[in-house]
Design brief:
Blueprint: H1 3-30, H2 35-65, H3 77-87, E1 91-96, E2 101-104, H4 106-111, H5 129-132, H6 135-147, E3 151-159, E4 174-185, E5 191-200, H7 202-258, H8 264-294, E6 303-306, H9 307-324, E7 328-332, E8 340-343, H10 345-361, E9 367-377, E10 381-390, H11 397-401, H12 424-434, E11 438-443, E12 449-458, H13 466-475, E13 479-483, H14 487-499, E14 503-507, H15 510-522, E15 529-533, H16 541-551, E16 559-564, H17 569-578, E17 582-585, H18 590-602, H19 605-616, E18 625-629, H20 633-644, E19 649-653, H21 656-665, E20 670-674, H22 682-689, E21 700-704, H23 711-717, E22 722-725, H24 730-740, H25 752-757, H26 773-779, H27 784-798, H28 801-810, H29 814-830, H30 834-848, H31 852-886
Parallel strand pairs: 7-9, 13-14, 13-15, 15-16, 16-17, 18-19, 18-20, 20-21, 21-22
Antiparallel strand pairs: 1-2, 1-5, 3-4, 4-5, 6-8, 9-10, 10-12, 11-12
Helix pairs in contact: 1-2, 7-8, 7-31, 8-12, 9-10, 10-12, 19-24, 21-22, 27-31, 28-29, 29-30, 30-31
Length: 887
């Protein structure tokens, strides 16, 4: 039985109980037996049920009112309830089943302009103007009535009377309210109407809207600020490029002019032009890097590099500047620090260049010390601290605190002695942050500064220590005496030399060194090797060498290496004349120091370098036919010259399609396959060749200028057996050929032996920054005439690169543009044009990323590097002409 049916039964039973009793009494008095007994029993049951229902009602009433005071049930309680109901801040009303208004509290009446209940009772919303303007109120009540379910806390907007007593200030008569409505039931459980209420939330709503508007306004302001900042950075980048392009031309032409015949006055003028242009170019580069960082366009690479090479480049760049100011320049890389790391060597070098440049600029006397410390290491990575200390002017605590802010310098006065943009350290710190490291400084006024960077760098999987172990084995136990007047240099030398297990001693002057040599000779323990600084107080290094040659017999004379702050041809010649065994430039780096000492002590460094490639080749590979698949003409010449010089019979295919045809017509011992070529690339060619020949029948080695991770795996997947990176390392190439090529016998009717024998001649090439002539010419058996021809061809082929690449990009031929720079990268690397190859690599990456702005920014530098290559060719021509004249 449903609840409303039970309620109706109870009400019926309650109101009809007296009727049942009267009927029962009549039946008992006037009806024959046994009816009276039956009626009496029914009356008894009815009395029992009625009593039970009455008790339940009483119990429920007791439970609901047990906590109420007696006064609550008095006659005054009705007035109390009416007063509470009237004074409620909520507006309350109720309707009947036809949604006609039955009643409301005074607040509701005031909201709709009514003065008494008589104006509302029995009316509908349509009968009242203000309520007719708020149809949503009736709709909500109608929904509650139909669903027979309460609807609570629903927001809605209503229009009220202009004189309504509403909370809070208002500009109009519209209010936001939170409305609730519940059904009303009668004693039978039937719905008899709706009880509705609402309260004003306009103030809360308005505050929420104002907060939302404020948040939206702040977001728009932030977006506008970011857009303005991005526009500023883009403008700086574009303007930097526009300014840098003509400056590059000025610098390039000034360098070329300085190499011509000039009067002293002209040379002085052009040097001023060159130095001023370089200074302005440095400012522009700082602005450009800063704008890239601000625009989040600067990325950090993760490539293998050698930390020793980075520090070696630093030594080459600043040795003369430090020497020119009379400063001692020290680089300390302990032997316990692994140097084969993974990171961004270019950006790391940029940071160190900035720190060393500042150290030299702000130091007038004393030393610059670049030191590396191993903080921690595990199997995968190392924690390094690199410090740049100077003995310069230093800074106060206040100056140090604001040092890393953009466009800020320690001395901001208009008469400041030192120039600069104030961006260098800001850029350096942000670069270090991008490398997941930290940068800081400790300094005191007039006590120098100590800048440091701390980095976590992954280790390369292959930490080749064979060369280091070889040097340690050769130098083990050698008695060496280092003579240097600088305390920091002496400590660094002692630490480095003893790391090679050498018996190392140091002296601070030439006079002390002579005494130590005399004592060692008297004890029958003469020194085997000496490192002598040229600029010693009192007796200099050259005089010390002469004195040793004069005072000590030949068997007691050590091998002597003279060291100076920069390379000077005339000093080197003087050193040879007085009997010095070798010459080394400061600052010392561990790799250079070890090579020079080993060469002086054992005199077979060149012999090893010259004999190793030939010894790698077994007799069965002499005259072996090799197929070189290469689309770049310069690389073709380099490969042919290098391989024919070792007795190979070389054929050339200009693309993969030609190579597939050639391997079906001729038998080859090995195929050297370039990867990126027109018509058909190396991967496709290798896959097609594998359809005809197995790995044993025809080995294929990949050659590529890309050092990207995954290249080797992709080459193997395409059917190749090995991967040789460009620029081609001769020793690596020959070892791979010896490992994979099919042994002969082959026809040995080659003239390669004659070419190899020519290597024993001593050669000396110009030292040009960014160009490794010795390495490049060794690839083509020191054929200077061919090298000059290849340089001229490269310069001619890549002049006007900006126009060519812009045409590619405008036509949407991005792959052709990428291949253009890839080809330049490989050719330049094989010719030893290291700076040009690096620039081409960055341009190739920019094309891959579709970064047109970066392409436009960097491509202007190609012309200057091509001028550099052209000048190198001219220098070699002059050198060759002088050699012929002397003959």
């Amino acid at each position: 039985m449903k609840a409303n049916q039970r309620s109706r039964f109870r009400v019926f039973l309650h109101h009809s109980y007296w009727l049942w009793n009267v009927l029962g009494l009549v039946a008992i008095l006037f009806m024959p037996a046994p009816v009276p007994m039956i009626v009496a029993g029914l009356l008894l049951v009815t009395a029992f049920v009625y009593g039970w229902q009455t008790w339940l009602g009483y119990r429920e009433s007791t439970l609901n009112t047990g906590n109420a005071k007696p006064e609550f049930f008095s006659t005054s309680s009705t007035q109390l309830l009416q007063q509470v109901f009237s004074d409620l801040p909520n507006r309350v009303y109720w309707r009947d089943k036809e949604l006609r208004f039955v009643g409301a509290n005074p607040g509701f009446l005031r909201d709709f302009g009514l003065s008494s209940m008589h104006e509302l009772h029995g009316l509908t919303d349509a009968d009242l103007p203000l309520l007719a303007q708020n149809p949503e109120l009736r709709e909500r009540d109608q929904q509650t009535l139909e669903l027979q379910m309460a609807a609570c806390n629903q927001e809605m907007r209503i229009q009220l009377n202009g004189n309504a007593d509403t909370a809070g200030p208002s500009l109009d008569n519209t209010r936001w309210v939170e409305h609730s409505s519940v059904p009303l039931y009668d004693e039978y459980g039937e719905i008899t109407g709706i009880l509705g209420s609402y309260y004003d939330i306009s103030t809360i709503k308005r505050a929420a809207e104002e907060m939302s508007l404020a948040r939206e306004t702040a977001e728009q302001a932030r977006a506008a600020a970011e857009a303005a900042n991005l526009a500023k950075s883009d403008f700086l980048a574009n303007m930097s490029h526009e300014i840098r392009t003509p400056i590059n031309a000025i610098v390039g032409m000034a360098n070329l002019a300085l190499k011509t015949q000039l009067t002293d006055k002209q040379k002085r003028y052009i040097k001023v032009i060159d130095s001023s242009s370089q200074a302005l170019l440095g400012v522009i580069n700082d602005i450009l890097d800063f704008s890239k960082i601000e625009a989040n366009k600067l990325t950090i690479e993760r490539i293998p590099f050698d930390l020793d090479e980075v520090l070696g480049t630093l030594a080459d760049m600043f040795a003369y500047k430090a020497y020119d100011k009379g400063l001692e320049f020290i680089i300390n890389l302990p032997a316990n620090i692994p140097t084969m790391l993974i990171g961004d060597p270019l950006r790391l070098q940029q940071v160190l260049i900035n720190l060393v440049s500042n150290a030299i600029k702000f130091t007038d006397d004393g030393e610059i010390n670049v030191s590396c410390t191993l903080l921690d290491r595990n199997n995968d990575k190392v924690w390094l601290r690199i410090e740049v200390k100077d003995t310069g002017i230093g800074m106060t605590a206040e100056q140090s605190a604001k040092l890393f802010q953009a466009f800020t310098q320690a001395d901001t006065s208009t008469t400041r002695k030192y120039g600069g943009t104030g961006l260098g350290l800001t850029i350096s710190r942000r670069l270090v942050k991008l490398m997941q490291g930290d940068m800081g400084v400790s300094s005191s006024a007039n006590q120098g500064s100590n800048f440091f960077i701390e980095l976590v760098m992954p280790l390369q999987e292959s930490q080749d220590q064979s060369h280091h172990q070889l040097l340690m084995g050769q130098l083990n136990g050698v008695r060496v005496l280092a003579v240097d007047d600088n305390t920091s240099t002496r400590e660094m030398l002692k630490e480095t030399l003893r790391s090679y297990s050498m018996d190392a001693y140091t002296c601070h002057s030439a006079e002390q060194a002579l005494e130590v040599l005399k004592q060692a000779a008297a004890e029958q323990q003469p020194f085997q090797l000496m490192l002598i600084d040229w600029r010693l107080p009192g007796m200099d290094g050259l005089k010390l060498v002469e004195r040793i040659k004069q005072k000590f017999p030949a068997e007691q004379q050590p091998k002597m290496i003279l060291a100076t702050g920069y390379y000077a041809e005339e000093l080197a010649e003087k050193a040879r004349q007085v009997g010095t065994d070798d010459f080394i430039t400061k600052p010392y780096t561990t790799a250079t120091l070890a090579r020079v000492m080993t060469g002086v002590m054992f005199g077979h460094r060149k012999q090893i370098h010259e004999e190793t490639p030939a010894s790698m080749l077994p007799e069965a590979l002499q005259g072996a036919p090799l197929l070189v698949v290469e689309d770049n003409e310069i690389n073709q010449h380099v490969a042919r010259e290098m391989l024919t010089g070792h007795g190979f019979n070389v054929s050339i295919a200009e693309n993969g399609e030609v190579a597939v045809a050639m391997v079906q017509e001729h038998q080859y011992a090995l195929v050297l396959m370039d990867i990126q070529m027109p018509v058909m690339d190396g991967y496709q060619a290798a896959e097609q060749i594998r359809q005809f020949y197995s790995y044993q029948q025809l080995p294929i080695l990949a050659m590529t200028a890309n050092a990207m991770s995954g290249d080797a795996e992709r080459s193997l997947a395409a059917g190749m057996q090995g991967h040789i990176p460009k620029p081609i390392d001769e020793a690596l190439l020959l070892s791979q050929i010896a490992k994979w090529a099919i042994p002969g016998p082959y026809d040995k009717s080659q003239t390669a032996a004659e070419k190899v024998s020519e290597k024993n001649e001593s050669r000396r090439y110009p030292q040009i920054r960014g160009i490794n002539l010795e390495q490049a010419l060794s690839r083509i058996n020191h054929n200077v005439e061919l090298y000059i021809k290849l340089l001229d061809h490269l310069v001619k082929s890549y002049r006007g690169s900006a126009v060519t690449v812009s045409e590619f990009i405008s036509r949407g031929q991005h792959d052709d543009a990428r291949r253009y720079f890839h080809s330049l990268k490989g050719a330049a690397a094989n010719l030893g044009l290291l700076a040009l190859a690096d620039k081409a690599a960055h341009l190739e990456q920019a094309v891959v990323e579709r970064d047109v702005g970066s392409i436009a920014d960097q491509i202007s530098g190609l012309e200057g590097l091509l001028d550099h290559a052209e000048q190198a060719a001219q220098d070699l021509r002059s050198l060759a002409a002088d050699a012929q004249t002397q003959e």
